């Protein structure tokens, strides 16, 4: 008598086809990434492409680690923005600072990480692990930002999104003057009105130059309260269905198709750190602090090399995020954590998504910040927490 197969053996049988010179990336991911973190990377590709890019989902991305110096702004993030796959971003300030090098025509080079740093210092060469660049790159980029923030439009407090949008116009103009295209994330975000936030604006060379100009009487100051409320407003607007492509339900009894009224929020975390928390804290800001009825983000996708058992935020699991109200508990089965270097995972996820999903309409969320803030104020007015 045949033994009944265990329910635990219902997964796909492991029997991948041999890899050949003609194997495409999509087939490689779908058919040969079958176990361990390769399988988690496959799940990441599937979650991002099949669920997070649905028309009713707003996608926020967080960046930590030196990703733009490694060219990932040009190779992956800008193509994802142009395809409408990234709606808003929170990053370390360093990523935006080093991104600017490319937009203003400065060079960074591949190097050997084993080179003596004493020798490099004597040669006025700076390194980010195995990325090398001349010390003058820092000085020239500092000078660029100092000249930019002297403009009248910067003489006031503002959110980091407003600062990056305004500064991005100058980077875009420099790109065009130099005959460059699609080199700077700041420039692309300005062009497509993707809000760029920095959770710790003083912790980068951009913030250092703003501080230096303040000693000369410059009035630019970053307002962290604006950042906290604007990011929460984006998430609330997403969940209330205000950010979406046109999606219609089946026709009702009167034959008229109607739009769905709700939407979803997805967070794609590259690394961890402060940007991860700043993106996820939008839901506690909405629920715990403002007293607005909400349940948490719908999709959680993280690429990280941080372990959860050390207690750090970077390694905190989506299950732990549920306990804070950051992630909707009903959506926890859709959460994926891939323990891998972002410089490996991001190009693969981007290539997979661009191959498998048609472009979405770009949402231009920066242009709608005041609308979203009005929504946040209105719902807060109704709250008992006031």
Structure, explained:
With 386 residues, the protein is α/β, with parallel strands linked by helices. Helix content is 44%, strand content 12%. The protein contains 15 helices and eleven strands. The protein has helices at residues 25-32, 36-52, 72-82, 93-103, 117-122, 135-148, 160-177, 185-191, 205-214, 224-239, 273-280, 282-289, 318-323, 342-356, 369-381; strands spanning 57-63, 88-91, 109-110, 125-128, 131-134, 157-158, 196-198, 221-222, 264-270, 299-304, 336-339. Helix 10 (224-239) crosses helix 12 (282-289). The model is unreliable at 249-253 and 255-259 (pLDDT under 50).
Task: Describe the protein's topology.
Layout: H1 25-32, H2 36-52, E1 57-63, H3 72-82, E2 88-91, H4 93-103, E3 109-110, H5 117-122, E4 125-128, E5 131-134, H6 135-148, E6 157-158, H7 160-177, H8 185-191, E7 196-198, H9 205-214, E8 221-222, H10 224-239, E9 264-270, H11 273-280, H12 282-289, E10 299-304, H13 318-323, E11 336-339, H14 342-356, H15 369-381
Parallel strand pairs: 1-2, 1-9, 2-7, 6-8, 9-10, 10-11
Antiparallel strand pairs: 3-5, 4-5
């Amino acid at each position: 008598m045949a033994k009944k197969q265990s329910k635990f053996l219902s997964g796909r049988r492991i029997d991948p086809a041999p890899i050949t010179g003609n194997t495409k990336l999509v087939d490689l991911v779908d058919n040969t990434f079958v176990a361990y973190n390769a399988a988690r990377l496959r799940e990441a590709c599937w979650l991002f492409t099949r669920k997070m890019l649905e028309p009713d989902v707003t996608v926020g991305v967080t960046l930590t680690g030196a990703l733009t110096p490694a060219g990932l702004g040009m190779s992956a993030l800008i193509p994802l923005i142009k395809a409408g796959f990234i709606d808003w971003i929170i990053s370390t300030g360093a990523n935006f600072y080093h991104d600017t090098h490319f937009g203003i025509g400065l060079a960074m080079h591949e190097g050997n990480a084993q080179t003596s740093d004493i020798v490099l210092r004597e040669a006025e060469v700076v390194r980010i692990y195995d990325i090398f660049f001349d010390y003058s790159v820092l000085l020239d980029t500092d000078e660029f930002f100092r000249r930019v923030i002297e403009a009248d439009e910067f003489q006031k407090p503002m959110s980091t999104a407003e600062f990056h949008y305004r500064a991005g116009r100058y980077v875009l103009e420099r790109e065009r003057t130099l005959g460059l295209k699609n080199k700077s994330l700041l420039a692309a975000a300005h062009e497509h009105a993707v809000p760029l936030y920095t959770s710790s604006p003083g912790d980068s060379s951009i913030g250092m130059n703003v501080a230096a100009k303040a000693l000369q009487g410059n009035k630019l100051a970053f307002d962290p309260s604006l950042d906290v409320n604007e990011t929460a407003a984006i998430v609330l607007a997403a969940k209330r269905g205000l950010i979406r492509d046109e999606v219609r339900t089946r026709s009702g009894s009167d034959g008229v198709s109607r739009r769905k009224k709700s939407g979803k929020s997805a967070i794609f975390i590259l690394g961890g750190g402060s940007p991860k928390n700043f993106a996820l804290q939008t839901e506690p800001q909405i629920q715990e602090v403002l007293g607005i009825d909400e349940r948490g983000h719908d999709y959680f996708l993280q690429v990280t090399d941080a372990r959860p058992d050390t207690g750090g935020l970077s390694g905190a699991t989506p299950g732990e995020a549920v306990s804070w109200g950051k992630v909707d508990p009903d959506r926890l089965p859709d959460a994926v954590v891939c323990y891998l270097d972002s410089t490996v995972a991001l190009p693969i996820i981007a290539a997979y998504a661009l191959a498998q999903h048609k472009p979405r309409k770009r949402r231009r969320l920066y242009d709608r910040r005041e609308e979203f803030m009005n929504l946040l104020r209105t719902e807060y007015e109704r709250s008992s927490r006031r």
